[in-house]
Amino acid sequence: MHVPASSLQTGRSGSFVNRKEKTCRELNVEQAGVTTAGKHFALPKAFFLTKSKLNRAAQEAVEKALRYGYVGRRRKKRDFRSLWIVRINAACRTSEISYSKFISGLKRAGIDLNRKVLADIAVNDGPGFQTLVEKAKAAHQAQLQ
What is the CATH number of the domain that holds 84? Predict the structure, then answer.
């Protein structure tokens, strides 16, 4: 087999070493299409200082970021539900009914709207929300009698 002279380099012992031949590890990594550094530094490349440069710091930063992301996706649902409840409660108070009586009256009246839709109606459609309040009050009064 003829090897070009440009690909030959001298090793420590002074003998010529063929740089075209690759080890099994290099072949496996090449087949996977991922370098060792690429595997570790794909996610933290936008991080600051050592968290994007050094292996351990980058790995810890990525793990922490993924953990915060996981928790945050669940927390977002809680936060939005709480926001909707605050908006509905504020609209109910202007109509002189408490939030709990309003929700209870809607359920008794058979009006099945979720809090997201109720909050949107409360913010964007005042007269429509007022009709819902009247129906909820009527259903609540009928239950008391």
Answer: 1.10.1900.20
Residue with tokens 């299409």: 33
Task: Tell me which DSSP letter residue 114 carries.
Answer: -
pTM of the model: 0.65
Asked if residue 8 is part of any domain, the answer here is no
**Residue 11 domain-assigned?**
no
d(CA 120, CA 127): 13
pLDDT in tens, 59-71: 888 889 889 999 9
Counted domains in the chain: 1
Decide: 88 and 115 in contact? Cβ < 8 Å. Answer: yes
Is residue 137, in this structure, part of any structural domain at all?
yes
* Helical H segments across 1-145, by residue range: 24-32, 36-41, 50-53, 55-94, 99-109, 115-124, 126-144
